[in-house]
Structure formats: C-alpha cells, structure tokens
Design a protein that fits this description.
Layout lengths: L12 H15 L11 H8 L3 H13 L3 E4 L3 E4 L4 H25 L4 H12 L1
Antiparallel strand pairs: 1-2
Helix pairs in contact: 1-3, 2-3
Protein name: GntR family transcriptional regulator
Keywords: DNA-binding, Transcription, Transcription regulation
Pfam family, one: GntR
C-alpha cells in the first residue's frame, strides 16, 4: 500500500491518510487481519508528524475499520463486510443524488430522470 500526501490539498493530511487507507480497505487492497505500518513508520515514510498518523489511525479505529492491539500494532478489522457494504451504498447514493441535482438544474422532470436511469441500467 502506497499513500500519497499532497501539501497543496485543501484536506488536512490526517484526512488524506484516512481516505486512502479506507479506500484500500473498501477495494480489498488491504485484507482483513492485515497489519498496517506502525504509527512511527508511516509518519517517517510520509515525512509527517507521528501525531498526524496517530490521529488518522484513531479515526479509522473509531470508524471500526482497524483495530489496534497494544504492543503488536494496528490491523484491518475483521467483520467489515457489512460496514464496507454500507459505505459503498452510501457512495452510490451520493453519486445518484448528484446526478439528480444535475438533472434538475437543467430542468429534467422526475420521469425524465427515471427514464435516464433505466436506460443507463440497460
């Protein structure tokens, strides 16, 4: 897993870390039980503060995506299937919402939008 941090991004660095690790878990790049780099190792490789990586890991743990075992490290949490499915559904709903907004912005009716979705499904 390779993380890329952008100093020119409007997102804080810890959020960039969270988003990339979360993405790797959701896509299966990081498997259940797989060990993540230590907080210090990740901080050193990204050339950021250990406090920044600690915050990212804390957010991931609070979301139930990783588990930290004292003295052993952080691991991708087990039983993420439902959590991953919910996150993926949320992302699809968000994209569909944006599509509806875009359609309404150009004056499409609900019927026209529904017809467009049906065509896309084919």
């Amino acid at each position: 897993m390779e993380l890329i941090i952008s100093n020119s991004s409007a997102k804080p660095i810890y959020e960039q870390i969270v988003d990339q690790i979360k993405g790797a878990i959701l896509t299966g790049e990081l498997a259940e039980g797989e060990q993540l780099p230590s907080i210090r190792a990740l901080a050193n490789s990204l050339r950021v503060s250990a406090i920044t990586t600690k915050r990212a890991y804390a957010d991931l743990e609070a979301a139930g995506l990783i588990e930290t075992v004292q003295g052993k490290g952080s691991f991708v949490a087990g039983g993420n299937a439902d959590l991953i499915r919910e996150e993926q559904l949320r992302q699809v709903e968000e994209l569909m919402g944006k599509s509806v907004e875009a359609g309404r912005a150009i004056g499409l009716s609900d019927e026209e939008l529904s017809e467009m979705f049906s065509l896309v499904l084919e």
